[in-house]
Amino acid sequence: MSPQIAALSQVDRERLIKASFEAKAMAYCRYSNFRVGAALLTSKGEIIKGANIENASYGGTICAERTALVKAVSEGMRDFVALAVVTDVKSTISPCGMCRQVIREFCAMDMPILLVPADYYERKEVSATEAAESVKDWTIAQLLPDSFGPEQLDLPRS
Prior knowledge:
Blueprint: H1 3-7, H2 10-24, E1 36-42, E2 47-51, H3 64-74, E3 80-87, H4 97-106, E4 113-116, H5 120-126, H6 128-134, E5 136-138, H7 140-143
Parallel strand pairs: 3-4
Antiparallel strand pairs: 1-2, 1-3, 4-5
């Protein structure tokens, strides 16, 4: 577990998970019927929600994670603490490759990324410990190892 993940308070963790479920409820996914919600926590304690928004022209579709990041960045926010992602699947689902690259652009390599199962709250009714253990805690460094980022553009060229 990274120091960042350990530093995320239980209160913020729960706020973020709740917000990801709220975001998922706003998904527009009439083609895939695969709802995704994301919630991004800023260093000022604000939560920015994002849902997947599909389009009949499939290339125009945007994932929940990118929706949250684009909303935040377009409003001048650039300092993020954590991200939570949830779908309707009872196992955790990781961000797609494109989302991982966008997360890499704007988030610290050791920022917590919480992958939340759809049945998190049902598990919590049975056991808070089981619910907590059902969430996968990752970082972008783990999800996108040996990644390309903005700092590579500053490297000397021959």
